[in-house]
Protein 1
Amino acid sequence: MPKAATKKNTASSARQEPYTKSSPKDSAIADKENIAPSPEKSSSAKPTPKAKSQDASATKHTHTDYRAVPLDQVKGEVPCYDNAAAVRRKLKNLLASKENIPDISPAKKWSQAGMAAEMQKLEEVDGPVEEMNKNGNGPTTRSLAIFLKKSGNMGGADSPCFYWGYVLLEKLRIMKREKKSKPRMKAEEE
């Protein structure tokens, strides 16, 4: 058998380490957000008035977490402008859409358990509602399943899933920048 070629070691070649000793955090590039803009760049690139208005409107409704979207409140509660049948229909459409729950990693699709968990998180963020919290039960998977099986315009309106489902849908609507429906606008006028 032929011998394999071997590399001759020379005294001048030292073993090199596979990684550098400095971390990326040490580099000047790592923290660009906290560096003050240079005066040359800011004076040469002045935004036009039209660009300012577009930037302001783009950041006005931009939220990283849909749970942080502020809603108008009356006496500490969000007024509901949809009846229970409309909320039920919208929740069922959301479940059937197979969309991912926003701001969750790893990404999960909407399910009844996930929806109930999101309603519970909204209750933690916004605080419990006194009228809905008399019996101490918040939105659960079981109460959501019961609410979705009800029928009629006001069937299940006493369920916490009606109120928190409405809040969930309203925050998602604002985050997605969707318009209000005509029946909703009519209910607001009344």
Protein 2
Amino acid sequence: MSISLLEKYLPENTLPYLKVWFGDHSIHIKITKGRNSKLGDYRKMPDKSHQITINSTLQPPLFFFVLTHELAHLLAFENFGGRISPHGAEWKNTFKIMLLESIAIYPDDLKPIILKFSRSPKANFMASPDLVRYFHIENYEDESSYIEDLDLGEKFVYRKQTYIIEEKRKKNYLCLNLDTAKKYLFKPLARVEKLS
């Protein structure tokens, strides 16, 4: 996919950054249907080309953020060698530099969140409560809640199964699946449907 075909998914004025980051690399971008498990991923292919997949359902600023995350993998591996940790210091520093270079792309109310995130980039988008809240506020107008907003003993539905919150363990919540009697840990920003 050519860079220009990405334009409909991206905020304005992103192409100059992407042209620099793409450089002469052979990169295949695949736009996928929305996936619950991940927003995007990066792979180095056997023929030495690179493949990046990104969910098509992302808002333009988040699409650009995820694309930047995945390109940071490519650039970190190219600059530091294939033996580095995927989300180690080299990747974090590369991602941080890319975020700061392109900060002008983001809406004014998102810039402080990106700046804060760039101090110590996380491997998982869900590990940044500020980013998750920002994009969920924009994305969701349904009846869903964050699990951290519910009280112990409250029931909720997650992926068509009913749970009850039993206890808080450090940051996560231990919940009993009332359909299977199995217990699961949920992250505080898991989106659930509260039962009244």
